[in-house]
Fold this protein.
Amino acid sequence: MQTQKHGLDALDISSKRVLVRVDFNVPQDAAGAITDDTRIRAALPTIQEILKRGGRPILMSHLGRPKGVDPKLSLEPIAARLSLLLGAPVTRLAASTGAQVEAACAGASGPIVMLENVRFNAGETKGDGALAASYAKLGDVFVNDAFGTSHRDESSVSGVARLLPSAAGRLLEAEIKAFQRVLEKPERPLVAILGGAKISDKLAVIDNLLDRVDCLLIGGGMAYTFLKAQGEKIGTSLCDDTHLDTVREALDKARKRKVEICLPSDHVIAEKFAADAPSKTVVGFIPDGWMALDIGPQTRSLFANRIRSAKTLVWNGPMGVFEMPAFRAGTEAVGRAVAECPGYTVVGGGDSVAAVELLGIADRIRHISTGGGASLELLEGKLLPGIAALKYPV
């Protein structure tokens, strides 16, 4: 019996123009030089496979948030870096639609093509159907390998996927499978670590995870809304009073489902939000006029123990004000524990990934997600538009 193919394996790309949505939204310095090409490197396996299978890649990406055409956000330096990494010429076009672009993309053979920044087109972020049709003229088939934008219903993401035979690229496929492993078929115990400043960004994630996890560790500024909801004094720590009732409902849901929620029991505090602010560690209540900016050593130890015991683990968000060295120890402790965890580990979110890179432990994490917003929406239980539109997701 023939095995059914999925994803890129199911797409016939031989002698085809393969329109590929990549995420080359990379950081650059003031002179436009690329400071981190991780996202470009992450797309190489898909591009190389298309070439090996006889397809012609036509690449499309955004860069930044331009309002119209902005030469500072041109993909010219991205094309140059990609060419260097591939060891093959990459032709960067001056636009992403129009007769000249169509002529340059015509034919199943020829140089690798990179379209100009798709967000130079006004309708891109609005999911304009006519714009998507203009893109679709450039390829015979479509591959989405841009996980970082797959939560957006944009013309170059889901719009083209609806118009051409479409599949997930290898990067997107790896992201989908990683989160499926965490959310659908985890080895237990499943531990989730959530941090960051805004609790409003994570409430839907918490609600979805409480149906799945065995233990939820909460740090960062969002923890203090939880502590206040339990009646603890939090000084001037970050707190969203508008969500206290929602947090109490989450705590009640956790009790009913027998999910352990671990919150900070000690705190590194300061009188002001500043890198050079004098700080001290307190256990329990936070005095008036002081704010918590990191978890304390007692909490670090508790969190590390829970992390090391996990068979499946997902981490999104720092434990404190990670960008200030004085308040980084909690995030670093969690990062080292995640690296020591023997289970399947997934890390997503800008600051968490930055911590992993800073600590030099990236090679000890099973999956590092390339999309903060997209990974959060998957953790909320949402089906991302850029995935839902594909004929062959995985």
About this structure: The mean pLDDT is 95. Residues 158 and 333 are 39 Å apart (CA to CA).
